[in-house]
Amino acid sequence: MKMFNPENVHLPVSGSKKNDGSPWSFQDKVLLGLTPRQYLSQLCRNRVNWLLVLIFGVGIPLIVQRYFYGLAAVTHGSNDYPWGLFLGFGLFGMVPLSASGFLLGTTVTLFGRKDFHPIERLALLNGLLGYFFAVVYLLVDLGMPWRLAYPMFVSLGPAAVLFLVAWHVATYLSVQIAELLPALFEWLNRPAWKHYIAKISLGLTIAGIILSTLHQGALGALFTYAPTKIHPLWLSTDFQWIHFLCSAVFGGLSMVIISSFLISRYASWRCGKEFSSTLHDITLGLGKGASYAVFTYLVIKIVAIAHDNEWEYLLTAWGGYFLLEIAIGVVIPLILFARGVRRGSVTTVRWAAAIAVIGIIWNRLNVAIYCFNYQLYQEVPHWKEVWLTVTLYALYFIVYRFIVYRLPIVFTWNKQSRKP
Amino acid sequence: MVRVKIDLFPLLSLFFIIFPVMPTTAAFAAAVASTVTIDALQELYTPVDFDHLAHAEMYNCTSCHHHTTGTTMQDEKCLKCHKNSPATANVSCSSCHHRRSTALDGAEPHGNYHIDIVGLKGALHLNCLGCHRETGAPCGCIECHDYTEAGRKRFAVQEN
Amino acid sequence: MKTQTSRRTLLKKGLGSAAAAIFLRAKTARSHNIKRYPNSCGVLVDMTRCIGCRSCEAACNAEQKLPSPALPFDDRSLFAQGRHGSKRRTDENHFTVINRYDPPEIDHPLFRKIQCNHCQEPACLSSCFVNAYTKTPEGAVIYNPDVCVGCRTCMIACPFYIPAFRYSSALHPQIVKCQFCYETRLKNNLLPACVEACPQEALLFGKREKLIKIARHRIRNDRDRYVDHIYGEYEAGGTSWLYLSSVEFDQVGFDTTIPHEPILNSVKNFLAMVPMVLTIWPPLFAGFHLLAARRARAEKTRQENNREKADEDV
């Protein structure tokens, strides 16, 4: 965004009115205050967009292929591995990384920690988009996505864990949309509408905690349907839901640490004063929270092994792999988080968060694919499945970027014209 | 109750009823049928031309039949109860092995005996194949009975 | 005033959740205890009798109007096939499959028929979020293709790897599996197609209770022929299809690690927790909020007092 140099002081759009007091038009808001030609030229100059074009160039035909020729055309269509990357990464990986919404909502609205307020909206957006794209992945993976509403309205199977997931994700999506509506209303110059949302914000937050606890746990509980298929080290029928919930806590926090860092680094023009000035302390605060959660997770992982008396598995090859996952995905982030927080080093905390995010995704892929059917052959996803997964993630990135650039997520909306 | 829908064995039953008596060696050749046509499962397979005489010459009657007419039981398991039973009057398979297995009738089994009498199709295949597999005699389906058109179609056999 | 609103919200939420919890518990309790049908039917598979003729596969193919196989059903070369080093399994075009095993301690091969085992408490049924599966009083576990969404959770849940997915279809990609010929035969008092076709009576149809008695009878009468176990009597809570074998079951491809209780039991830990979260979380977190709000207010008042004091001092 090299357009936003000192000569264009009135840019970017960060309030309802221009400097001269006239309101921004809708087109101005969408195009970030640039002319269409300027907007297009900056789009083409951005190398990230070149990469995106490459991804979509291959990915879009693949999506068409999937819907016209069935899942077998883009995946191995394995009856032994019913869930591949779309769910292993898209659902089981995206949802824990989106726990940020309810965590920060709870911290700020419920516990009254106003010092985290500047990042609350980013956390909510991260949550909302994560969930939304988990549903998008689901729409690609489901045999008949047009029947998505069946468990809601047509034929109900209320005793199934997936029923709970479906309802809770759907409800929680609405809750998160409601929580983010104020940002949209500000952007649309309808501040009065915020009033209604503000009234129910406490209720929304509490609903968010309940729904999140249950569906984060439920995603873990889904695997307890396969007690004979998943390697015992990755499946504890008693603790699975707690493992998933607890790892979602540091997963969500880590994801906000990463995304706030990326925004402050690569879209600094967009960051408000409050956001920029507090990010250092907030990152450390989030890191502190994450370190507690990682520690708790490590403890209950060990408790689960003790509870099921699975120590001897640790000496097998699978045990080695398990210890590797714990070492890289849990212990290293734990040490880095602790050191970063104690020494006040934001960089260390960010490294810890990055490794933790990878660790979570790795863990979910292990449970869903790699350690699933551990007594059978190993499924390696089709390259088209991998590419499609990347394509959908690229779409997620674009939507994320589009919203952060425009809505008042990391800056405060200025109702009056800005002072020169 | 469940009913078996197999059109079964009129000729076969007849045969076993007609040739039950083999009391002496002298009467053997006269009493034993040389060839028996078993036309069960006509739907998928052609009838079997069973060389009864050849089998009767190679083996004892008791190799295949539980008992012969006019004698008592030989099988140890049967003897436990049937030691003093009168000589049996009927040697035909179908007189005990009915169209369907006893598992299918509604009656609850009483005691431990006669609760697991296989159906006629099962009895014939178990009997014939049981021996054929041990002695290295032909075991393939179409080595005893060829496919009918319907059988060829069912088993998706490619026409040459 | 603010506190009052919170309290009211709290009360409303609490009541709502309690109601939701009761509703949910009632629903889950209902299907936690899947009704067992004492008179249900099953099939006893005596593997010592099976000769691997694949008549059952051919009959199933004809009955279910499945596409013609690439190789004819009397082609035995197929037994050597199988992907990824595993044996053939059920898929969208094969609802039952015969596999050959050569256990070292016996001199002849054994053949294992796989198809849906029609569990007493089916994992597929309890995992289905659109309630597509039904356990009929006759014993069949059938599904309703009109509501299947294609989420494939039942494939995850089935400990026997039976449900298959029609991956190749763009318009009707859904679950398919053996239905015990429920619609076409069982309902009309006819034998399942595979059972009827079996020349060896290796497949014996009957009441499950009676089949267990017969199986015990066979084991007792011929201890050299059978191992002393009826596979399916207790596995996964009991199945309608039962198996007898002449070698240990794990040598002929059976999973002997399957628990002797319904798969649903391992999910119950989580399901039992759901009503607790629904009822305890709202008051708990609303309480936290009140405490936090009160502390913040106290802090504010204290600061104001201090300031006033300081002003007075000056």
Automatic annotation (TrEMBL), chain A:
Subcellular location: Cell membrane
Spans traversing the lipid bilayer: 48-69, 81-110, 122-140, 152-175, 196-221, 241-263, 284-306, 318-337, 349-370, 390-413
Signal peptide residues on this chain, from the entry's feature table: none
Membrane topology of the entry: Multi-pass membrane protein
GO biological process, one term: anaerobic respiration
Name listed for the protein in its UniProt record: Ni/Fe-hydrogenase 2 integral membrane subunit HybB
Annotated region (Disordered), positions in chain: 1-21
One of the record's GO cellular component terms: plasma membrane
DNA-binding listed as a keyword: no
Organism: Desulforhopalus singaporensis
Automatic annotation (TrEMBL), chain B:
CDD domains in UniProt: Cytochrom_C3
Keyword Transcription attributed: no
Class III cytochrome C domain: residues covered: 43-85
InterPro entries to which the protein is assigned, alphabetical: Cyt_c_III, Cyt_c_III_dom, Multihaem_cyt_sf
Positions annotated to bind heme c: 52, 55, 61, 64-66, 78, 96-97, 128, 131-132, 141, 144-145
Extent of the signal sequence: 1-29
Cofactor dependency: heme c
Record Pfam families: Cytochrom_CIII
Molecular function GO labels: electron transfer activity; heme binding; metal ion binding
The entry's keywords: Electron transport, Heme, Iron, Metal-binding, Signal, Transport
Note on how the cofactor is bound: Binds 4 heme c groups covalently per monomer.
Superkingdom: Bacteria
Protein name per Swiss-Prot or TrEMBL: Class III cytochrome C family protein
Organism classification: Bacteria, Pseudomonadati, Thermodesulfobacteriota, Desulfobulbia, Desulfobulbales
Automatic annotation (TrEMBL), chain C:
GO CC annotation: cell envelope
Chief location category: other
GO molecular function: 4 iron, 4 sulfur cluster binding; metal ion binding
UniProt keyword list: 4Fe-4S, Iron, Iron-sulfur, Membrane, Metal-binding, Repeat, Transmembrane, Transmembrane helix
Subcellular location: Cell envelope
Keyword Iron-sulfur: yes
Cited CDD domains: HybA_like (cd10561)
Positions of the 4Fe-4S ferredoxin-type domain: 41-70, 139-168
Transmembrane segments: 270-292
Keyword ATP-binding attached: no
Pfam families: Fer4_11
Domain of life: Bacteria
Protein name per UniProt: Fe-S-cluster-containing dehydrogenase component
